[in-house]
């Protein structure tokens, strides 16, 4: 299974939804809180051209946000994308 990272902030409702979906599917993930780390946020924006949270990656490949994660799940492609 690919390494999943979810970059979040504490006040983001879509971050919570993304984490809940991954937990419900028993997908292990690392949560990285970027709320106070502006340097990391800037690095993520530059690397992925993505400015909102959650920012979700599988093995450092940008998946997108909650809507993208949920779409993969709804289409039955999430576990395949994870290498399961």
TrEMBL record:
Protein name: Glutaredoxin
Keyword Lyase: no
GO cellular component: cytoplasm
GO biological process, one term: cellular response to oxidative stress
Positions of the Glutaredoxin domain: 4-63
Keywords: Disulfide bond, Redox-active center
Coiled-coil blocks: none
PANTHER family according to UniProt: GLUTAREDOXIN 2 (PTHR45694), GLUTAREDOXIN-1-RELATED (PTHR45694:SF18)
InterPro entries per record: GLR_AS, Glutaredoxin, Glutaredoxin_subgr, Thioredoxin-like_sf
Homology family: Belongs to the glutaredoxin family.
A GO term, aspect molecular function: glutathione disulfide oxidoreductase activity
Pfam families in alphabetical order: Glutaredoxin (PF00462)
């Amino acid at each position: 299974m690919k390494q999943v990272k979810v970059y979040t902030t504490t006040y983001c409702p879509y971050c919570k939804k993304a984490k809940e979906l991954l937990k419900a599917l028993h997908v292990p993930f690392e949560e990285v809180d970027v709320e106070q780390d502006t340097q990391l946020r800037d690095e993520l924006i530059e690397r992925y051209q993505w400015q909102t949270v959650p920012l979700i990656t599988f093995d450092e490949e940008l998946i997108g946000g909650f809507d993208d994660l949920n779409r993969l799940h709804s289409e039955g492609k999430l576990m395949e994308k994870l290498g399961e």
